[in-house]
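Continuing the series of single-chain predictions for the mutant panel. This is the parent chain; the variants come on the following pages.
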Amino acid sequence: MLKLYIGNKNYSSWSMRPWVLLTQAGIAFEEVQVRFGDDFSDPGSQFKKTVLPLNPAGTVPFLVDGELVISDTLAIAEYLAESFSDKALWPVDKARRAQARSACAEMHGGFRAIRNHCGMNIEADLALQGQLLLRDHADVRNELARLVQLWGGLLAQHGGPMLLGDFSIADAYFAPMASRLKTYALPVPPAIAAYVERVHALPAVEAWTEAALAEHAFVLEDEPYRLRS
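Parent structure:
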């Protein structure tokens, strides 16, 4: 059986992507959680000691299929799409598939200001910090506008309910961004807000969110705005 190694569900946006994809698609897998500690980025931490023998990159998530270890989320998504072609994880239509891949690539390499300033933190209410970030950081404002443009264009073109019509890798890939919009109460147009709600209503996202809220783990390195939970 496939094994997916992940970090804390409250914080690990990259872990959320393949977990949501596998769960929403109904693909059987074993979850192995390696919790972050306050020193998890330290080479001598328990986190690194657990992960490094399996994944030399020293990061989560990574997927294990027999002797194969895949440590990049986009590579994991591509591997799953090829392994489970019946699930249509990418859109069947060639043009939509290209749009989905393009959107995922932009998320994979971009939106760095939002990712840096608005770390995923499902259990927190950081609406005030969101207001301050929008006031003080033009790059956050610009990236939020681009996100609205990207999502809005795809939803308008394909009619929803998901970005490319039916659920696809693209929706799993942007699920952590939808979570950030909620945590930081970042203002978006009604059509985008409705999409955020539909993402959170996906059974896989609901399950991830419930588990994140149940963790009750406070990792200082992932908490730039709070001293305690």
